[in-house]
Design a protein that fits this description.
This protein is an alpha/beta fold. It folds into two domains: 161 residues, VC0802-like, CATH 3.30.2130; 217 residues, Rossmann fold. Strands 1, 2, 3, 4, 5, 6, 7, 8 and 9 form a nine-stranded mixed beta sheet that branches. A six-stranded mixed beta sheet has the order 14-13-10-11-12-15, with helices on both faces. Helix 3 crosses helix 4, helix 5 crosses helix 10 and helix 8 packs across helix 13. The radius of gyration is 26 Å and the shape is elongated.
Length: 391
């Protein structure tokens, strides 16, 4: 007998011809996430099994629950001895006294002589006789004893830790996340990754109006997303000259609208450079002046590139709930301003007109966009020592 971690796939069951690709990608993401743990992975069309030293099991299982593409994680007792006595003994390991329970058997190895219903009944009877205070409850048991009889042996487990679900990150292409230090964009990135999309990050920085502490905040947020799947790099856009030009030369009420249009122009050009398939942001309808439908339409006018807004219909409380769940909330509320919170006019236009925006942009030197693109800084999230060098 030995302990093995069983990984149950999530939405991979909906994939037919491409299923092996999804499983292979999930394996790569697991290996990336568990680089500091010595593990051995075996897999088939329906399950993945991970072996590691017993002292690493808890850490390994906790990490697995954060990886997209996993429905559930179980600690199994595994044996190659296919006899009823061994099954009874191992089943007793996964149940406690004074609990309600049921036994569920899945017999994919049809050479095993006892069918699923009969084996569940026999094991249940053994547990009732040998463990104090047990009661059968087939509808809402406190513990389910699961028995899987497969060709290579028998797996027995109780509790299943819930996984993140979704698709393995990287199976459905790459996108560029417009990442700020606030609550919204990081949550938008999390939801996009859940659909199998790998992310690179674009951060607009306006030194000295913003600080290196604000950049470090964004790095920490990106590292949180990296815990949930394979991510790319952070690209820092020097945005100071563009913001100062907008502030000095343009209609005060249109500052935010023009700023967002410039951001979209840069994001579109850069997404094409890195071969991303879409741009992702944290916009939520009506949350701020630049996120009314009219504003979104005017801002979006500068690009034909696909824009994904996972939070479009979310309210702030829903966004906060997810931020707390994924561990980004406490970082996002740190009081370091980013470029979206400097130069904010007292009365930004809520329903901008495209004709006014175009007229204002006649005052703008568009060479500044090319200059910003040429001076983008890349931060590789895999190089831990680089973070300290930036501050």
């Amino acid at each position: 007998m030995k302990k093995i971690i069983m990984v149950k796939y999530a939405e991979l069951t909906t994939k037919k011809c491409n299923r092996n690709f999804f499983i292979e990608t999930l394996e790569k993401n697991i290996l990336t996430s568990l680089t500091d743990i010595d593990i051995k992975i075996t897999k088939d069309y329906y399950r993945m099994f991970i072996e590691t030293k017993e002292e690493n099991i808890d850490k390994c299982m906790n990490s697995l629950t954060k990886i997209f593409g996993i429905h559930g994680v179980c600690l199994c007792y595994f044996t190659t001895e296919k006899d009823e006595s061994e099954i009874n003994t191992l089943s007793s390991y996964v149940i406690n006294e004074n609990k309600t329970f049921k036994v569920v058997t899945n017999r994919s190895d049809k050479t095993f002589p006892i069918n699923s219903m009969e084996l569940s009944r026999k094991v249940g009877a053994y547990l009732l006789k040998n463990i104090k205070g047990l009661k059968v409850n087939v509808h809402a048991p406190e513990i389910t004893v699961n028995i899987e009889i497969r060709q290579e042996g028998i797996y027995i487990y109780g509790e299943t830790l819930k996984g993140m679900g979704g698709y393995p990150t990287g199976t459905l292409g790459k996108a560029l996340l417009m990442l700020s230090g606030g609550l919204d964009s990081i949550v938008a990135g999390f939801l996009t990754m859940k659909r199998g999309v790998k992310l690179d990050f674009l951060y607009f920085e306006s030194l000295p109006h913003t600080s290196l502490e604000a950049r470090d905040k964004v790095i920490k947020l990106a590292k949180i997303l990296k815990e949930y799947g394979n991510t790319g790099s952070i690209y820092v856009v020097p945005f100071t000259k563009i913001q100062e030009s907008i502030y000095k030369n343009m209609d005060n009420t249109y500052m935010i609208t023009i700023m967002r249009r410039m951001m979209y122009r840069i994001a579109t050009k850069f997404a094409k450079i890195i071969k991303a398939n879409a741009i992702v942001n944290g916009e939520s309808i009506g949350q701020v002046a630049s996120q009314t439908l009219t504003s979104m339409k005017v801002v979006n006018d500068v690009t034909s590139f696909p824009i994904i807004r996972p939070l479009a219909a979310f309210d702030k409380l829903e966004i906060i709930d997810i931020a707390k769940k994924i561990g980004s909330y406490e970082i996002s509320i740190l009081p370091y301003m980013d470029c979206c919170t400097v130069f904010v006019p007292p009365h930004p236009v809520i329903n901008p007109h495209i004709s006014v925006a175009l007229k204002e942009e006649e005052k703008f030197n568009f060479d500044l966009i090319e200059e910003a693109l040429e001076n983008i800084i890349k931060i590789d999230l895999t190089e831990k020592e680089e973070f300290n060098d930036l501050l």
